[in-house]
Amino acid sequence: QVQLVESGGGLVQAGGSLRLSCAASGTIFTIIGIGWYRQAPGKQRELVARITSSGRTIYADSAKNRFTISRDNAKNTVYLQMNSLKPEDTAVYYCNAGSVFGVSGYDYWGQGTQVTVSL
Q: What is the pLDDT of residue 28?
């Protein structure tokens, strides 16, 4: 199993920055990718950014040119650097890990961290 712990959320003014961290533990060798998702009140959870085990990254259009996903393999941690934050970025941000063990795939989620962007 994989355990994910997010941190780094908080309250920031529009135009500010935050860096979220997702620390992974457990059977991390099975992880094929880690992503950041977010869910605003009354909305569906959506992908923000994802990084694969090979380092390939993908971003939602809303995150391009403002957010950067990166990883520190030595610390088993994935980061989401968020710049130029907007009020519409307000949401609970979740870390997700996809893993494969044998012929089975697994999905793991962290507990979420609140990001609030004020005007």
A: 87
Question: CA 31 → CA 24, 69, 94, distances in Å?
Answer: 9, 16, 16
For residue 22, how many other CB atoms are within 10 A of its CB? Answer: 26
Rounded Cα distance, 82 and 38, in Å: 13
**Rounded Cα distance, 2 and 84, in Å:** 32
The SS3 of residue 75 is helix
Phi and psi, residue 110, nearest 5°? -85, 180
Amino acid 67: pLDDT: 98
3-state secondary structure of 96: strand
Query: Residue 98 is encoded by which pair of tokens?
Result: 């996809």
| Segments in the chain below pLDDT 50 | none
